């Protein structure tokens, strides 16, 4: 199916984007699941990201089958399994950022199609998933990252996961407003989470060698403005490899396409369009001749690794091109102009004085 996306400053043509979307559809399983690659695992976060990319590219039927899978696989408590392989649950635990992400996909779908019937159908799943996520909030504001298969909760928070969850809570609140169903508990949780991401990053698990922990507070919307610019500038040279993209971990010579495109969307949300576009252009060396994308490139050895093309990398490319090209109404999903305003701190339990922080300003 042809894509609505035009040329983006010589980066990708409409036909090239359509070809990339077709490679995602080609790996979709009969039940609608979108694995990382053929025969690999499915997790609901990357699955929803792929469904969003398919909407952008005009692959509407395949996208809807993916959302049907979300409804079929959701458990009564609002969660999804961490890992499903070819229809079989391989990890029966639950991760908070994964379960939260359906809200982002539903809001994105509304922006593109304004299909109220679809939103109504998905709303119970969004409601139960975010209720569970909010129940996993820690006293200082971060979100516990996982409930293991044995039912034990890992009561530690990941900065990347919590930043994505903040984005999902805002998307969920936008959907709730559309459904005329206020969710004040989500607002309180989002305000506490934003404060934690901005003021208590030392309390999250230390994953500072990973590029996602560097840019995700910006991508998820908790950090913007001058603080975001300072955050990105501080580790630019740690993670960016000019002409190639960004590394996944700053200790390894491995640039990855999905992280590069996510950083591009974070920069776009900051208004840094030139560097965002350059990054998407730089990572095109990962494009396979069939339109899919290699996961990454080990530049010291000059080899693709792992030796596979992943749906989540292709999806990230499509979403980044849409964001930079302002093609569909869904292109705003990371910039967040269509989402609720950021939340001032309220009901804090971390010991901070709420009045000490002004929205968008340093303490």
From TrEMBL:
InterPro entries: 6-hairpin_glycosidase_sf, 6hp_glycosidase-like_sf. SUPFAM superfamilies: Six-hairpin glycosidases. This is Prenyltransferase. It comes from Nocardioides massiliensis.
């Amino acid at each position: 199916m042809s894509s609505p996306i035009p040329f983006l400053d010589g980066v990708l043509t409409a036909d090239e984007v359509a070809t990339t979307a077709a490679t995602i559809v080609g790996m979709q399983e009969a039940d609608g699941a979108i694995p990382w690659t053929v025969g690999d695992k499915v997790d609901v976060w990357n699955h929803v990201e792929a469904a969003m990319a398919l909407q952008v590219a005009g692959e509407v039927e395949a996208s809807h089958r993916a959302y049907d899978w979300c409804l079929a696989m959701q458990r009564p408590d609002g969660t999804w399994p961490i890992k499903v392989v070819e229809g079989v649950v391989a990890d029966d635990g639950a991760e908070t950022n994964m379960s939260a992400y359906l809200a982002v996909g539903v809001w994105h779908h509304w922006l593109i199609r304004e299909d109220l019937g679809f939103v109504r159908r998905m709303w119970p799943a969004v409601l139960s998933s975010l209720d569970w996520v909010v129940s996993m909030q820690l006293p200082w504001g971060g979100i516990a990252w996982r409930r293991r298969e044995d039912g034990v909760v890992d009561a530690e928070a990941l900065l990347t996961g919590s930043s994505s969850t903040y984005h999902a809570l805002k998307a969920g609140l936008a959907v709730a407003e559309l459904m005329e169903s206020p969710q004040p508990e989500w607002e309180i949780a989002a305000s506490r989470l934003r404060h934690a991401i901005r003021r208590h990053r030392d309390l999250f698990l230390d994953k500072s060698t990973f590029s996602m922990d560097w840019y995700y507070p910006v991508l998820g919307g908790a950090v913007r403005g001058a603080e975001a610019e300072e955050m990105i500038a501080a580790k630019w040279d740690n993670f960016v490899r000019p002409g190639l993209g960004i590394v996944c971990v700053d200790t390894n010579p491995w640039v990855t396409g999905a992280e590069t495109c996510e950083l591009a969307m974070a920069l776009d949300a900051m208004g840094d369009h030139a560097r965002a576009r350059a990054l998407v252009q730089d990572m095109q060396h990962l494009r396979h001749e069939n339109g899919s994308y290699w996961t990454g490139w080990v530049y010291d050895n000059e080899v693709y690794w792992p030796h596979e093309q992943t749906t989540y990398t292709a999806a990230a490319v499509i979403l980044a091109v849409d964001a930079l090209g302002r093609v569909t109404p869904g292109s705003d999903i990371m910039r967040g102009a269509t989402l609720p305003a950021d939340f001032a701190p309220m009901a804090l339990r971390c010991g901070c004085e709420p009045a000490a922080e002004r929205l968008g300003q340093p303490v």
